[in-house]
Amino acid sequence: MKNREKYIYCLEGNWNRNPRSKQSIKPILDLLHTFSRVKYIYRKCFNKEDFLKGLQTFAQKRYANYTVLYIAFHGRKNRVYFGNEYVTLKEIANTLEGKLKGKIVHFGSCSTLRTSEKNISDFITRTGCSCISGYERNVEYIASTAFELLYFETLQKQYSRNKLKVIISERFPALVEKLRFVIA
Questions:
Q1: pTM > 0.85: yes or no
Q2: Which residues are paired to 94 by β-bridges?
Q3: Closest of 43, 39, 63 to residue 53, by C-alpha
Q4: Which CATH number does the domain housing residue 158 bear?
């Protein structure tokens, strides 16, 4: 991979039903920006339609410098949730087919990557992304958010998928195991 900063394009869903809730991953993006100068774009998605539109926007040329797609939602096996609606990895791949060359997709959602190798391989092949990462189990918000701060900081320095896997596993073994974090 080319040695360049990995700016983040984040789509975040609602973490609960309270419209006044302040729960958000945006503060970690602010922290990354303040201390590591990581640029980011943050978009709140209230439903499936907002999410799909956000994906299409990310694929536009004007966002070519944003190499990390951060999907922060509730999740279950092979899917991302928006209240009662959901989107599967296959549906996301349909929307982004051939549009993610050299990009990294991180699912900051419970269990989304608890799926078959075929589904993961199909996603990578169809979208053209260099790798996907996320969790194979339900995760605690604070632990996963703290890990993601460390992960995104590490992404700024590492370039190959295999080297990234080794470094993340060596630096943060307890969190990788606890969260069942994977990079594919």
A1: yes
A2: none
A3: 43
A4: 3.40.50.1460
